[in-house]
Amino acid sequence: MSSKKRVFSCPECGNPYDAYPPDDNHTRVSLKDPKEDATSVIKIVHDCSECKHPITLYWYSPKLSIAFG
Fold first, then answer.
1. Is the pLDDT of residue 7 over 90?
2. CA 30 → CA 44, 45, 64, 67, distances in Å?
3. Where are the extended beta strands (E) located within 10-66?
4. What's the rounded Cα separation, in Å, for the pair 4 and 67?
């Protein structure tokens, strides 16, 4: 697990919570599956400590764009 803490809020009640990237390769995060924007995705579900609402985070490695010219 990476040590770079990120702070999010529950979309239901607004309660803040900490989340950490699962590793140094999956540093970007989205609430929706990034699909074709990512080379690799790790789905992690957190339950809000206040309202117990499940919150799904998609940690991913972005695709690299190579520019020619």
1. yes
2. 11, 12, 17, 25
3. 16-19, 28-30, 38-47, 54-62
4. 29
**From the CB of residue 60, how many other CB atoms can be counted at a distance below 10 Å?**
23
Residue with tokens 């609402």: 53
Instruction: Name the DSSP class of 1.
Output: -
Residues 6+ apart with CB under 8 A from 32: 58
Instruction: Convert the pLDDT of each residue in 49-59 to its tens digit.
Output: 999 999 999 99
Q: pLDDT band for position 62 (50/70/90)?
A: confident
Task: In whole angstroms, give the CA distance from residue 21 to residue 7.
Answer: 11
